[in-house]
Amino acid sequence: MAPLKSRHGDAKHPDSDDNSVRAYEAAPDLSNHEDAVFGGTNADGPNYRNVGWMAAAVLMMKAQVGLGVLSLPATFHTLGLIPGLIVLVVIAVLWTSYEMGKFKHRHPEVYSIADVGQVVLGKPGRYICAGVYWLWMTTVAGSALLSISIAFNAMSLHGTCTAVFVAVATIIVFLLASIQTLDKVAWITWAGALSLVVSLFLVTIAVGVTDRPAAAPATGPFDKDFRITSAPTFAAAMSAVSQLSFAYAGTPAYLSIMSEMKDSRLYTRSLLLCNGFTTVLYIVVGTVVYYYCGQYVASPALGSAGPLIKRIAYGLGLPALIVSGILYTHVPAKWIFLSALKGTKDLNNNTPKHWIVWFSCVAGCVLFSYVIASAIPVFSGLVGLVGALFGTFLCTIVTSSLWFYDNWGKSDGSLSRKLIFGLNCAIFVLGWFVTVAGTYGSIEDIIIGYAANGGTRPWACDDNSNST
């Protein structure tokens, strides 16, 4: 397919040449041209291409930081601080979504990972990638619903049955995820991102000024068992690696965010801002909370500073948890919606069919997420399982395959080309290893969580804010 041309006739993206970011800072607004994904705009219909580069960066940050950061201190205890930080940085470098942005530039008709599968492998690739992509997004939304129920329990001191809180979270996410365009969701995302950062730094400061971790014995000596290095079992180590993978597994949402940008040529700028901020936040919060809490760290981490701070932190962080559910429900629902109405007049017009299909897509996604949140109510295990089974596959195996698809047979024999080829081979192999081994470790983690005293049960009324 030929590159998508703007209304100015320029089919070449600045990312494909040596121009600096400044060379296209004043790029024209591309929101009104005939789009390869959404078609033409309609004054009476939704404007899908209206997300600025800064708003795109915040959407990406929220896709990344939503849940993964809450499990980081616990993974550092499993792996040891130094190995944990090394694995974190390696994942930050290798789980990159830069190549995904380049692929979108070369194939503007792509909206999601499912479309990527169609381009690379035809219909079989579309079916495989579509299944993994949809399951990934909806299970992440399920993790968000579980986190929201934990927040409700923490704030209300278990005011009612946890199953009720999960249902309430599902209704809230459905209503807000039904907002049709990402530029409007971005306004909510700003509040969510800010609330999570404030909440995390509150916990970070609180654990630093207290005499002992909240979960430590109230009196007498105690051992934090702070580990610079550790010797975990294979299953425990791979579960921890999977949780770290989850912390950087927002990549599958980036294609959809990029598709709704006013000027997708500024994607790289948004990506650099997102990944830089995310990595610094992860290192600071994860290290400080683990240093002061050690083995008494909670997962999610917001419960590490005692009952009062936990209630305040969850209250501050609740908007962020809700936004995670919104984003990871909205994006897969939008993909189904586009697949159902693409090429019809109903896509860009507010007809009865348009709204019926849209609300049905959102409802279907959030109901599946509700089942996931209710059936696997073990936070760390669910995060690890989702990260290993789906996130790693999409962020490494699929991403490296994109480079092979567009560059196979084009080698110029240069050292840099060989190094890039070798790097993508390594990412591909590592992705398969973490997917298989991490899934095994996460399942073991879930089994242990069910068996432990105070462990939660599916569709139960137990207080999950005290057993995670």
From TrEMBL:
<protein>
    <recommendedName>
        <fullName>Amino acid transporter transmembrane domain-containing protein</fullName>
    </recommendedName>
</protein>
<feature type="transmembrane region" description="Helical">
    <location>
        <begin position="417"/>
        <end position="435"/>
    </location>
</feature>
<feature type="region of interest" description="Disordered">
    <location>
        <begin position="1"/>
        <end position="21"/>
    </location>
</feature>
<feature type="transmembrane region" description="Helical">
    <location>
        <begin position="132"/>
        <end position="151"/>
    </location>
</feature>
<feature type="transmembrane region" description="Helical">
    <location>
        <begin position="382"/>
        <end position="405"/>
    </location>
</feature>
<feature type="domain" description="Amino acid transporter transmembrane">
    <location>
        <begin position="50"/>
        <end position="443"/>
    </location>
</feature>
<comment type="similarity">
    <text>Belongs to the amino acid/polyamine transporter 2 family.</text>
</comment>
<keyword id="KW-0812">Transmembrane</keyword>
<feature type="transmembrane region" description="Helical">
    <location>
        <begin position="312"/>
        <end position="333"/>
    </location>
</feature>
<dbReference type="Pfam" id="PF01490">
    <property type="entry name" value="Aa_trans"/>
</dbReference>
<feature type="transmembrane region" description="Helical">
    <location>
        <begin position="185"/>
        <end position="209"/>
    </location>
</feature>
<feature type="transmembrane region" description="Helical">
    <location>
        <begin position="354"/>
        <end position="376"/>
    </location>
</feature>
<feature type="transmembrane region" description="Helical">
    <location>
        <begin position="157"/>
        <end position="178"/>
    </location>
</feature>
<dbReference type="GO" id="GO:0016020">
    <property type="term" value="C:membrane"/>
</dbReference>
<feature type="transmembrane region" description="Helical">
    <location>
        <begin position="229"/>
        <end position="249"/>
    </location>
</feature>
<dbReference type="GO" id="GO:0015179">
    <property type="term" value="F:L-amino acid transmembrane transporter activity"/>
</dbReference>
<keyword id="KW-0472">Membrane</keyword>
<keyword id="KW-1133">Transmembrane helix</keyword>
<feature type="transmembrane region" description="Helical">
    <location>
        <begin position="51"/>
        <end position="70"/>
    </location>
</feature>
<feature type="transmembrane region" description="Helical">
    <location>
        <begin position="76"/>
        <end position="98"/>
    </location>
</feature>
<feature type="compositionally biased region" description="Basic and acidic residues">
    <location>
        <begin position="7"/>
        <end position="20"/>
    </location>
</feature>
<feature type="transmembrane region" description="Helical">
    <location>
        <begin position="270"/>
        <end position="292"/>
    </location>
</feature>
<dbReference type="InterPro" id="IPR013057">
    <property type="entry name" value="AA_transpt_TM"/>
</dbReference>
